[in-house]
Amino acid sequence: MPKIAILGFGREGKSVLKFLQRRRLTQINTRIDADKKPEIWILDKNKNLNLTTSQAVDIKFQTGKNYLQNLDKFDIVFRSPGVPYNLPEAQKAVEKGVEISSATALFFDIMRRPIQMTRRLIQKKSPRPIIIGVTGTKGKGTTATLLCKILKNAWPERSQRVYLAGNMGKPTLNIIPRLSALSPRKSAIIILELSSFQLQDLNQSPNIAVVLDIFPDHLDSHKNFKEYLNAKANIAKWQKKSDKIFYFSDNKYSKWLASKSRAKKIPVKSSILGRSDLQKLKEIIQIPGKHNLKNAVMAATVASSLGCQKDKILKVVKNFRGN
Q1: CA–CA separation, 128 vs 104, rounded Å?
Q2: Ordered mean pLDDT values, 10 residues apiece, the chain (323 residues)
Q3: Which end of the chain, C or N, has fewer beta carbons within 10 A?
Q4: Pair type for strands 208-211 and 130-135
Q5: Maximum CA extent, the chain
Q6: What single-letter DSSP state applies at residue 84?
Q7: Domain range list for the chain
Q8: Which residues belong to any copy of the Mur ligase central domain (predicted)?
């Protein structure tokens, strides 16, 4: 019997459980023999988990101070973003053949796998969704939110096809059932804010990568800055030639990260808007800080590349108050 663990039962852990309970295992991982119903475990330091009666059916628990014991007994472990990929117990399990995954990794695996397999989950012959991933050290959530608002307002007739997911908006896996409800005419656009913790174990990259300024940070959660950078690099590392990557050309780490991509590279700087447009942006932006102005330029550039008109972009920026 396949054994699956959900490590950390917060917002993402709950979405993984809901997804697993509604799908056949062969739709999720074709390498595991799914003749038998999988055994699902919830591992969490908290002993008092808030589960509904329907959620708790056939679920096993390992909670409290020993919740990390025996990770090597599972076939797959879905970790929450707050659980480091390089956790010693997790790495020991990897050495014994256990797959360490996450809600974000599962989402990318499904959305960017061969189209025939994707349609088994979406159940319609819709165009493949366009995934936009946003990362950086500061302002990625604000930038992802602003970009989402621009796209929704620029295309009111397509606003139901634009989703903000991940750390901001809805859990990624909760988006998948919604895609089946869409008419098959145009692609959905899914915008994800991606932290280094979410990127660390990815082996897929978004169609459009957006890389903001990167600085040494989160070193309390990574071995060193090199590990932090390598984690961030997964937003670009697995891109295809048909993809795109936007990056700040005046930030050496953003530029380095873009060099890891095979996609079309689009350097971004404040002057890309032109002097008059940049001055207009400075006058209307409501959120303080130079980094927010710079990130607004990035959001405007990406939106423009997708066909949004300048006046509609500036209107959203003017009314935007932050996350």
Answers
A1: 17
A2: 91 91 60 66 89 73 93 94 88 94 91 58 67 95 96 83 88 85 75 93 95 84 88 96 96 97 91 65 84 92 92 91 78
A3: N
A4: parallel
A5: 64
A6: -
A7: 3-108, 129-319
A8: 134-268
What residue ranges in 85-139 does DSSP mark as E strands? 99-102, 130-135
The two three-digit tokens of residue 106, written as one number: 């599962």
**Measured between alpha carbons, how far is residue 113 from residues 105, 119, 197, 231 in Å?**
12, 10, 22, 21
Answer yes or no: pTM beyond 0.70.
Answer: yes
CA proximity to 77, closest of 230, 201, 164: 201
Cα separation, 196 vs 81, whole angstroms: 9
Q: Check if CATH label 3.40.50.720 holds for domain 3-108.
A: yes
| Lookup result for tokens 């119903």 | 37
- Reading the block at residue 119, the tokens are 């349609």
Q: Residue 41: beta bridge partners?
A: 5, 60
The amino acid sitting at 199 is L
Adjacency order of strands within the sheet including 99-102: 59-63, 39-44, 3-7, 76-79, 99-102
Evaluate whether 179 touches 188 at the Cβ level (below 8 Å): yes
SS3 content of the chain, % helix, strand, coil (to 5): 45, 15, 40
Confidence at residue 204, expressed as pLDDT on a 0 to 100 scale: 93
What's the full length of the chain, in residues? 323
129-319, which class in CATH? alpha beta
Phi, psi of 59 (to 5 degrees): -100, 140
